[in-house]
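Late entry, evening session. Most of the bench is empty. Finally got around to the prediction I had been postponing all week. Sequence below, unchanged from the version circulated by S.P.
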Amino acid sequence: MLFPWNVSRVEQAALCKRVGDVVSACDAWDIPLILEPVLIGAPRTEEVIIEEEKIARIAYDLGAHIIKIAFPGEERTHRLVEELKVPLVIAGGPLAGEPSETVDAIARTIRAGARGVIVGRNIWQRETDVAEKLLSEVAALTRSVSFDD
């Protein structure tokens, strides 16, 4: 569920209530809610990254079972993983850069302790042969990790 925070206070309050309702429904059905805190349309500046960290904490407080964020860097990801105590997954974002940059970002994500990546456009919008190779590398990275809990 998208959790856009750069809206009015009235919309933020309504969104928080909606998230609470969805969390309750998910709990009743034993379905995890992935909540994606984001500032829609905002450039990836330092200020935006800091604000999205704060919004991730709000998502946690509202009961999100899994939090999906844009990769804020290895150190920040590690800090959020330790602090939030729910699985954190990293969004792949729009098609950008070389495939090797995507693989590197995923490797840094895994080293930081994130539980997974949700990568779509950054793979599927590439040429088929490049996408298949990239997907193979991502699969190898994600399968190399095990968790104790």
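Two things to note before I forget:
Residues 43 and 119 are 19 Å apart (CA to CA).
The chain has a mean pLDDT of 89.
Will write this up properly tomorrow.
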